[in-house]
Hints:
Helices cover 84% and strands 0% of the residues. It is mainly alpha-helical.
Amino acid sequence: MSALFAGISGKALALALVLLAAGGLMIGAASLIFKASENFKSVTELAVSQAKAAVRAEYEVQIAKSNSEANARIAAQTRAIVQVQAEATDKIAEIERDRAAARKDNESLPNGSSCGIDAAHSRLLIR
Length: 127
């Protein structure tokens, strides 16, 4: 080994060794920085994916709540429609009964099938 470094003075050799050690330390430090940046990147990506999942879950909860409220309103409207239809059906049946009774009363009068209106027929209209 001494033949390899025979032409180099002691100070130059010491300086070369110091520079070599410093270079090794710099490579080691760069490697640590690279590893740290990779770890930071993976932690950041994990945090972002967890935040996205939390936001997605919150949106799903809000959508489910909104759907539930909309379904409740639809059900209330459906009940109201059914009630109005039942009332309308009852009213129509009542009108039909009154109409049938009026026809029966009209036909029971003398000259019930004749055209025109007399005093007996006009009393039926007043009801």
